[in-house]
């Protein structure tokens, strides 16, 4: 028989007004966004759910509000200790009884948390999947009044996902051991196959699926040809984001160190973050990044999951990402406050070769290697496309969209040309080689007669044909090029294949730093500077990241509205009852002082 646990009392119905009251009082938001209200109502009533929302879309509220409505203990499965710590600190600051169980706690602290869980004195308990499956933890949960299980970063459970974690497979026991406790799985990145596997492994077949748009309209996507990447990155930051907060992603630890040192030497406040640093160094660098403005974090993909910093103005990739899902999740860490942000990538197809080599030499199963290779193919397709970047990105996730008019291919369309004759020659050569030759071998055969295009241009044609689905790469046979269902149609009389024209790389030049003239600061700007300084002081006193006190978007709204009374302050998104009680007097006094001084000038 499966183990059971006491469940929270859910006999009383919850009305939309009840949920809205929790949202306003505890979290300080005047209304739900998108599908949040529908998700909250379904989960609070005891239903299972799968929720896909983009980064910054408010996924956490989809289980935090039901947790407070249902009472009892909501168990949140989270993959990272840093993420748990951040969430617990933010909830505690809002007056919510939240705790975590992990290796950072002392024996006494662990015992104290466990007693509170059994007694129902904790509303949200954060655990890793490894901790959950221990006998001690399962016994604790079986003796506790459970209200809900929330599986965060649920894509980690899927072998089709971009960040598969084998330990997440154990979460199938939630259905087996606690069948009466509802479950909600949440993620920001999952294609159709990944979504299906999450629902199947967590036994959510009887639950509802909530899919939000993947579109992040405030993010501008831009891909440039990689030449001298450090010089290009420096020019990008200086010209477009001087003094702004950003994240730069690299594939290797050594490149992280080199890039951070290069930026720092050229006047950019940059810090490294990768798994090779000590835990204390990573923690210190992350804390500095969260608490300060204008810091650039240079990192491997080890950094970022669950980082709640609203004012990141750009995310840059100086190496090819391993998957579109990873790229989407990483770029989604920009512009969480809804203000304009930029995703910039320096692209070279040669960067993908060692990644393909790693996949081929991996000890993973053949199916897993095929998945990884196909996801890398999709990244190259996104990078090579001549159509709108946003259209291509959303199509990957099964969503249609019109051209955004803001990405690089929309604002500066690439040169293109009719490549139908060359594509037909390519397909004929692939067929002549019995679909057993890789790109290098096929191109060698094509150039044996000395005719144009050159080797690099042929490689560009191959990549774009793969992107368009005209040619496939068989990664299990050393990268052999093969025909697809689209190939034969190329030989039709009316079929025309237009491809991006290949351009020979040009030498990058150093761009001089252009200083901007100082601007007169009005009341709004002066008040915003003072509010941020006050927030930094309070965060240091409380020992928490600055965003736990208030997000930038909230400070900007305070500076814009310039409230004079507590009730007007309470109407500002992000200022809940607890924060109004803790910080209200300070803010009102600060606002009144700045406004009075600027009016006297």
Largest sheet: 7 strands, parallel
Contiguous uncertain segments of 5+ residues: 507-521
Mean pLDDT: 85
Described by the principal axes of the CA atoms, the overall outline is: globular
Estimate the helix proportion, in percent.
40-55%
Radius of gyration: 26 Å
Structural features, described:
- The chain is built from 25 helices and 17 strands.
- Mean pLDDT is 85; it is low at 507-521.
- The longest helix is centred in the last third of the chain and has 24 residues, at 577-600.
- The chain has 601 residues and is of the alpha/beta class.
- Helix 8 (173-177) links the parallel strand 5 (146-151) and strand 6 (183-187).
- Helix 2 packs parallel to helix 3, helix 14 packs antiparallel against helix 15 (366-384) and helix 21 (523-542) crosses helix 23 (552-561).
- Helix content is 44%, strand content 13%.
- The strands form 4 sheets. The protein has a 7-stranded parallel β-sheet, sandwiched between helices. The protein has a 6-stranded parallel β-sheet with strand order 8-13-12-9-11-10, with helices on both faces.
- The radius of gyration is 26 Å and the shape is globular.
């Amino acid at each position: 028989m499966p183990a059971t646990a006491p469940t929270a009392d859910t006999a009383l119905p919850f009305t939309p007004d009840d949920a809205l009251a929790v949202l306003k009082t505890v979290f300080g938001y005047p209304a739900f966004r998108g599908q949040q209200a529908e998700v909250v109502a379904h989960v609070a009533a005891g239903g299972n759910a799968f929720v896909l929302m983009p980064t910054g879309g408010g996924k956490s509220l989809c289980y935090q509000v039901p947790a407070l409505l249902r009472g009892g203990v909501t168990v949140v499965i989270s993959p990272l200790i840093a993420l748990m710590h951040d969430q617990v600190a933010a909830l505690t600051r809002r007056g919510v009884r939240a705790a975590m169980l992990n290796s950072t706690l002392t024996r006494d602290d662990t015992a104290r948390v466990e007693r509170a869980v059994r007694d129902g004195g904790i509303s949200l308990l954060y655990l890793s999947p490894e901790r959950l499956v221990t006998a001690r933890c399962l016994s604790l949960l079986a003796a506790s009044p459970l209200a809900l299980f929330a599986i965060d970063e649920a894509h980690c459970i899927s072998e089709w996902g971009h960040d598969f974690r084998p330990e997440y497979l154990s979460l199938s026991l939630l259905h087996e051991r606690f069948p009466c406790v509802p479950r909600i799985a949440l993620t920001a990145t999952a294609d159709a196959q990944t979504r299906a596997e999450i629902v199947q492994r967590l036994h959510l077949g009887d639950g509802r699926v909530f899919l939000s748009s993947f579109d992040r309209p405030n993010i501008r996507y831009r891909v440039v040809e990689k030449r001298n990447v450090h010089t290009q990155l420096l020019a990008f930051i200086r010209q477009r984001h001087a003094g702004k907060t950003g994240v730069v992603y690299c594939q290797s630890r050594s490149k992280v160190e080199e890039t951070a040192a290069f930026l720092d030497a050229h006047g950019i406040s940059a810090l490294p973050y990768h798994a090779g640093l000590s835990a204390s160094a990573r923690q210190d660098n992350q804390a500095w990044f969260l608490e300060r403005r204008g810091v650039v974090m240079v990192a491997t993909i080890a950094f970022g999951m669950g980082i709640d910093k609203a004012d990141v103005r750009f995310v840059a990739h100086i190496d090819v990402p391993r998957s579109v899902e990873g790229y989407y999740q990483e770029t989604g860490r920009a512009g969480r406050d809804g203000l304009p942000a930029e995703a910039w990538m320096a692209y070279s197809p040669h960067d993908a070769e060692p990644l393909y080599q790693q996949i081929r030499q991996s000890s993973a199963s053949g199916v897993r290697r095929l998945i990884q290779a196909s996801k890398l193919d999709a990244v190259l397709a996104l990078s090579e496309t001549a159509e709108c970047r946003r259209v291509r990105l959303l199509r990957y996730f099964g969503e249609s969209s019109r051209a955004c008019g803001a990405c690089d291919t929309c604002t500066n369309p690439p040169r293109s040309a009719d490549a139908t004759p060359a594509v037909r020659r390519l397909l004929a050569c692939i067929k002549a080689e019995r679909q057993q030759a890789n790109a290098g071998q096929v191109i060698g055969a094509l150039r044996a007669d000395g005719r144009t295009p050159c080797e690099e241009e042929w490689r560009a044609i191959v990549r774009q044909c793969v992107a368009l689905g005209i040619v496939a790469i068989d990664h299990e046979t050393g990268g052999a090029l093969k025909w697809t269902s689209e190939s034969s149609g190329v030989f039709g009389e009316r079929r025309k294949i237009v491809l991006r024209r290949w351009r020979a790389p040009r030498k990058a030049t150093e761009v001089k730093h252009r200083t901007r003239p100082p601007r007169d600061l009005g009341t709004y700007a002066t008040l915003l500077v003072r509010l941020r300084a006050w927030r930094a002081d309070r965060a240091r006193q409380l020992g928490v990241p600055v965003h736990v006190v208030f997000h930038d978007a909230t400070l900007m709204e305070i500076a814009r509205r310039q409230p004079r009374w507590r009730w007007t302050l309470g109407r500002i998104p992000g200022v809940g009852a607890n924060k109004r009680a803790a910080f209200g007097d300070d803010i009102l006094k600060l606002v009144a002082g700045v406004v009075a001084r600027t009016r006297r000038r």
